[in-house]
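Today's session is about reading a structure prediction critically. Students often jump straight to the picture, but the first step is always the sequence itself: look for stretches that repeat, for charged clusters, for runs of hydrophobic residues. Only then move on to the predicted structure, which in these notes is written as discrete structure tokens rather than atom positions. Here is the chain we will use throughout the hour.
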Amino acid sequence: MKQSNWVQRTGLALLCMALSLPLAVNAQTTLRIGMTAADIPATTSQPDSGFEGNRFTGLTLFDALTMWDLSSAEKASTIIPGLAESWVVDAKDKTKWVFKLRKGVKFHDGSDFNADAVIFNFEKVLAKDKPHYDARLVAQTLPRMPTLKGASKIDDYTVSIETSEPDAFLPINLSNLFMASPTAWAKTKSWTEFAKAPVGSGPWKFVRLVPRERLELEKNAAYWNKARVPKTDRLTLLPMPEANTRVAALLSGQVDWIEAPPADAIPQLRTKGFQITNNPYPHTWPWQLNVLPGSPLADKRVRQALQLAVDRDGLRRVLGFNAIPAKGVVFEGHPWFGQPKLNVKYDKAAAQKLLAEAGYGPGKPLKIKVQISASGSGQMQPIAMNEYIQQQLKEVGVDVEFDVIVWETLFNNWRLGAKDPAARGAHAINVSFAWQDPFFGFARFYDSRMVAPRSVNWGWVQNPELDKLVANARGSFDAKARDAAIAKLHERVVDESYFLFWVHDTGPRAMSPKVKGFVQAKNWFQDFSTISMQ
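Below is the predicted structure for this chain, in token form.
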């Protein structure tokens, strides 16, 4: 009996001691995210998988000279200093810039970030004679900054950057060139090997990668920006391309957060206490058209007919109203919208009239093929959305055939262009994109020099008028003049209907009630550093 009492007292004492210990000793917090990608985006320092790659393996592991301000859910994001503290364009020669670098920054391996590191990372995509140059990195980088010519060292913390022509978009575009540790690369002299244990200077550090299964990161407690030191100890990214799989993983507790929950699952998730967040942001979901000679969509009347044949409010209902009807590349009322002559709306009679003028009707239906994906970065709910559009177009005498391929292949085909055999005769391709900056929203689509495979000018023919409008925007270093130039370009794009503008995204996400502190920026990119787990 005495021994039993002693055991009970001892057990109680040990329990009290355990309860009195700081919780942090045993309670590491982990945020687990179910992505829409089918695989982990490349960790070579220049991610693949579109901008989902930048979001998850670019901005987490690495930093760039410039970065997006993702701190507000109300204000539009702007470019702010990153590893560069400041920059200025030469007043006499606007192809030359000087960037002042941030001092005291360390890569995850303890090596210094400095001008030599910047030159190394420019050379990896520009200098074919350097051992660290890699064509795969070029493919993920230069289409996003085609005027980039080179960089040279002025001193340890100052670099000169040169472009092939005056380019006011440069500070924005440089947010896509991520800085990898030269020291880490030198240990293997291979980007393939580097990717197995990537080293950047970002707010998260690499722990473990299992291809097609997971990427595990841990917080960088020594991160140079103390305001962005992660509030969660670990971040685990899991590829889950199928929407219902993501929902099941969230409901079962396998993940804490999922991207793009399907509309029909949102009420159930809300009822069970999960958080649903969304915020309109500069991201649009269109069909990009093949206007090459021989394509039926080379006829402006046909393009405009398709533009008017779909009820976008009905498409919003398919998405549980987690979308905004699109009347162009940008939101109506945005400084870049301008005053297009074509009012993009649902007008079935006008659509049928235009098709008849182009020679199509009950006896001769228009037949088109569209390459789409079943899921993927920013693709929202592509099967349900495309089937709705297919049904709507059927009502005006248009037969749509879908070529459904995996997202990574679709994205690669986008770069190869409509002339490439990979297009398989498609008349349109469905790739969503962010338009938060003028290069990504406009220049890469309407500059004849950006014809695939150099960039994503997919089914395009040379258009000197649009080339001139793009040049006016790129060469405008005054913000108001640049906005006016882009608005003129946008007017022309809408009137010609080179894209079929369906909806703008609101970025719905579903997450556990344990997830706290998420600020959903009006941007494709998001900052995971602010998040804590209750």
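Discussion point for the tutorial: The chain has three domains: 27-61+202-279+507-534, 63-183, 283-505.
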